[in-house]
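Think of the structure tokens as a kind of shorthand, similar to the way a musician reads notation: each symbol stands for something richer, in this case the local conformation of the backbone. In the example below we present two proteins back to back. Begin with the first one, reading the sequence and then the tokens, and try to describe in your own words what changes along the chain.
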Amino acid sequence: MSRDVLLDQVGIVVIGRNEGDRLQHCLRSVVGRGVCVYVDSGSHDDSLLIAKGLKIDVIALEARLPFTAARARNAGVNYLVTHYPHLAWIQFVDGDCEMVDGWLDTALMALQTHPQWAVVCGRRREEFPHQSVFNRLCDLEWNTPIGEATACGGDSMMRLTAFQEVGGFYAPLIAGEEPELCYRLRQQGWQVQRLAVDMTRHDAQMFSWGQWWRRTMRSGHAFAETASLYPDDLTLGDRRQLRSNLLWGGILPLFIMASVYRAPWLSGLISLTYLAYLVKIYRNQRQRNVPREDAWIYAVFCVLGRFPSLHGQLLSVCHRWLGKKTPLIEYSGLVKRKKSVPL
């Protein structure tokens, strides 16, 4: 099948919420590369005008249901399937990302060559990793192993038949919807693959501790939510990660505080607890394949991240116990302009 015929069967779903100028860069990177729809989740900026100005089909989700990325992506796919029934592949792109030239060709060839693959993704890179330590951490986080994977991120190309076979994304999830979908795909015998090519460039615009905290808290919430969906499957939700967050972000700090105020004679044990954190940091910087200049900072933030991750877990548990729906946990837009935090 020729390249032009394959590209004609590609639908592109872009989702966003108050992305500002980033959305314009995103949409310009996908215009003309397949039929495209932009799905907006209640933006208060000019996102809808930007998309319409580029002659891109637009869906503005109603606020009667909670906004989630999963709901937006499902709405985009449903729109494309209805209006363009000849489509066979769906490329998902987040509105704060730009698609890299050549990615579509590479992804299409991979899915054509390997009929058992349902999802392919490449390397998402942070566009401005040296503007803040938090941007740099994003870039390091996305450098995952090449080959068969258990999950993809927000940017990926999927085989439409596989996506429809499992019913698409689970719309109520406010985060972690991609691993949950990939889990159901793998249960049906499909594979997820990460290719050794660049796919998208991401503009995190993350310059404050508050943004980093909320982003990491959202990850903890996602782990807890997906684990709760499949309580009998120990492989989903990374229960080892959940237990680690509880230990390093909750139990040990509580032990230190209780000992300081109630049992100062346990100062020796407190010192050992501090030593345990240092050992954990040391082991982290040796375990992940990151550049040497970034190894220590990555290791430190892996340990610091246990605290907001546990915050997210507890939020998930409390809301589930109370029968409440957790609102979106957003980190973009918490600062109005770049306030650089140097590496």
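Once you have a description of the first chain, move to the second and do the same.
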Amino acid sequence: MNLLDLHDVEFAYPAASRRPRPFRLAAVSFGVVAGEILGVIGPNSAGKTTLIRLLTGVVRPTRGEVRLAGRALSAVSTWELARTVAVVPQEMPSAFPFTVEQLVLMGRYPHAPDRYFETVEDRAVAEEAMVATGVRELAQAPLASLSGGERQRAMLARALAQRPRLLVLDEPTAHLDLRYQVECATLLRTLNREHGMSILLVSHDLNLAAELSHRLLLMSEGRVVRLGAPEDVLEEATLEAVYGCRVTVAKNQAGDRVHVEIAWPERR
């Protein structure tokens, strides 16, 4: 059974004067297999963020259905959804007057929404999440004092403390330097392989998505362009049509790993 299914989903934002043209998600259908990493890629305004908002119940489709573990998302309570799906957004609110530890402990709230104090188990789970993401030494640091990369790792720790079945990440390495990009990728792979966690990874980094993901979902202008193995989705002609620039795609000898590079214009 798929952990998550979108069937013929459509959605449109209300018309706004600041939008040059109305955005519409059109007839999107795909599933996230339990235990897989699915990478979602595409240019700006492709619909990637809207997709996250739909599958987490922030907005509802105007047509079609989102199902979580076989149940209509509309029938899943807020607390049950939060125990099943955890989201790591691109940014966190700048005015967020909490420490790293307090933020991570917030991830335990969906497991006992009527409780006002953390248990020993909650603190143990939070400790484990902070250690896994490399922010244990920052536990008492105010979030406002952290760098962008440190905040990103703290948000990932909060999501892990939820103990979700599906982890949704929106540009998880956007603020990370090379070392922490590698550590983040290693952690995601470990969560998937050793703990069976399903991951939906939204990324502009095509090579990171290809390296980590079992399958890629390529979107453009609110539609699914292609869904499949990275080596099948990352084709030069397809990427050039979607992104509007020249690229080169290299494959290894086995043909099961790909690397995308921009074909930069020659200097004059």
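Compare your description with these statements about the second chain. The longest helix spans residues 178-195.
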